[in-house]
Structures are given as C-alpha cells and as structure tokens.
Amino acid sequence: MTEWQPQDHYFHRAKKEGFIARSVYKLEEVDRRVRLLRPGQRVLDLGCHPGSWLQYCARAVGKQGLVVGVDTRKISIELPAHVHFIQADVFELLPADLYHISKEFDVVLSDLAPATTGISSVDSSRSFALFQRALTLADDLLVPGAHFLGKIFQGSGFDEAVKELKSRFGKVKGIKPRATRKQSKEIFLVALNKKA
Ligand SMILES: C[S@@+](CC[C@H](N)C(=O)[O-])C[C@H]1O[C@@H](n2cnc3c(N)ncnc32)[C@H](O)[C@@H]1O
Prior knowledge:
The protein is of the alpha/beta class. The protein is built from five helices and seven strands.
C-alpha cells in the first residue's frame, strides 16, 4: 500500500506557486482538460476553505469576472476585490443570500466534503447529500449554457448523481485528477452546457 505523504509534490508546488492548498491542482487539471473557466465569468465556489480554488478562479476569471466562495469555516487569506466570501452552511444558504453580489452564475463548483467517519456507506451518503445540495443551488443560479463541477465519493448515490446531471446538462464526464490521493474515493463530475 502507498504510504500517505502529507507534504508531497503537489504540496510543495502549491507553496511555490502561492496557493494555500494542494487541492488547487485538482481544479487546474479539470480546467485544463475541459476549459471550464474563462475571463469574465461569475463563479460560485461551494466549500471553498482554505481558499486555493478561490485563488485559482480569481486569476482565471480576472477583474471583469467575479467569484463567490461559501464555507462554514472562515477564510484567512487575503482576497482580491472581485472575490467575495460568505460564511454559511450550504444546507441553510438560499439563492437570495447571494443576490446582493449576483443573481446568476456561469459556473458552480463544489469541493464540499463531509467530515469523514471511516464508515464508507456513511461517508458516501453524506458526500451525496452535499453534492445534491450543490446541484439544487446550481439549478436556481446557473444560466443556460453554464457549467457545474462537483466532488462526490464513489459509492451509494454515485449513479444517481450522474443521472441527475445528465438530465440537466449537455455533457457529463467523471474525472479523477492526478492530485487526488490514491486512497481517496473522491471523483469529480463535470457537467457542461446547462440545458435551457
Ligand atoms: C476539501 S475542502 C475544500 C478545499 C477548497 N476547494 C480549496 O481548494 O481550498 C471541503 C470544504 O467543505 C466545507 N463544507 C463541508 N460541509 C459544508 C457545509 N454543509 N456547508 C458549507 N461548507 C461545508 C468544509 O468546511 C471544507 O472547508
């Protein structure tokens, strides 16, 4: 079995490139493979702490775009003016809570992850609940043609998640980025071109 290395290649690379967490390279790989992010977009990042995806999106959309991050945990990094943070539980967050920043978004990202118990059926069903919550918010906030990226643990709910995405988006793809730790059950589902 591969030994878990908390400070691996991606950890050192993130430090060198000025990102707060190694998980930025999961988003970077998805973006490279499917061209998710473009200048000027409005991006909602659910489960954004400690903020590496916010940092990446801030650069990708530029000052003409905007980024809103949501997490129960407060962000401690400094954010540029076009990046906003809302401290909230996604199960309590309403679309209207975002209206003072934007009523519509071009991309919803969810790296939401439950506190794991080690019991895979419990962890995967909690992960599925978070995924579904992100998708419900995306239903209300994404414009037609928009994109969704959501993390989910493989297990119960996975097939249902794919089915739900296929009913709403033109193209759905599963990606396990290289920066995902070998022992992790997480996979990212990317869904492009929201149907009108
Ligand atoms: C893997 S981390 C996100 C890492 C982030 N993408 C980054 O690169 O910096 C998952 C986050 O989901 C958040 N989270 C889990 N359940 C949540 C909930 N119900 N509401 C809001 N945030 C939640 C956790 O607090 C945690 O910060």
